[in-house]
Amino acid sequence: MKLDSAAPVIAQAISGFIVPYKHSPKTIREYYATCLRQAVRQFEMFVTPLVSRAAQDRATALGLGDLSQYRWLSRNRIMENGAHIFHWEHAQTVGHMSRMLTSMEDPTLPKIEAVVRSAVIVWVLKTEDAELRRLGYNTNRPDWRAAYAAAGIEVLHRAEGALPGWTATGATDGEA
Predict the structure, then answer these.
(1) Do residues 132 and 126 lie in contact, with contact meaning Cβ atoms separated by under 8 Å?
(2) Strand duo 155-158 + 50-52: pairing
(3) Distances 79 to 44, 62, 108, 149, 153 between C-alpha atoms, Å
(4) 72 assigned to some structural domain
(5) Could you give the CA distance from residue 147 to residue 137 in angstroms, rounded to a whole number?
(6) Cα atoms found within 13 Å of the Cα of residue 106, Cβ hemisphere only
(7) Contact call for residues 50 and 68 (beta carbons, < 8 A)
(8) What is the CA radius of gyration of the chain?
(9) Does 117 map to a domain?
């Protein structure tokens, strides 16, 4: 199931965390926040990952084919050759999406769905991830495209180009 199809169901489930979170004592809020972060992390189950040009070039050199066909749960197939090469990167970070949810004044289902739909995963090289972190883009990344541009990471998107069905796009384009 793709993220667009799953988003309404996920938003409904998450709404069950957000309202009590806002009206609970601190220790209970911490519990809800932990549950919420785990729920947000699992958005990845429904996301087709994007791929950095450098990561795809390395995957091609290793004979792995289209890196976007690999998910976190299938990483063992690529990690035999790439354990110290590739990183499964939450471009829209779990921390940022969690804060977006918990800071909502009026957490309606459409607002929650919009956050769910903002999930973006990108296969990058470990060196690209290290550059993001060096620049301070660990969990606080309100604009992942700007962060990637600052780190010199070029993201490939489905269309035409580098691989069949892929094209390189700039960090400021409107696609995710």
Answers:
(1) no
(2) antiparallel
(3) 18, 11, 40, 26, 21
(4) yes
(5) 7
(6) 1
(7) yes
(8) 17
(9) yes
Mean pLDDT by 10 residues, the chain (176 residues): 93 92 92 94 93 94 89 72 80 94 94 96 96 92 93 79 45 37
Question: Which residue range is the domain that position 64 belongs to?
Answer: 3-169
Does any domain span residue 104? yes
Domain count, the chain: 1
Helix axis angle, 3-22 relative to 26-41, nearest 10°?
A: 170
Instruction: Determine, yes or no, domain membership for 176.
Output: no
**Going by C-beta distance under 8 Å and a sequence separation of 6 or more, which residues neighbour residue 79?**
86
- What whole-number distance in Å separates Cα of residue 64 and Cα of residue 28? 45
- C-alpha 68/C-alpha 75 separation (Å) is 11
Identity at 113, one-letter amino acid code: E
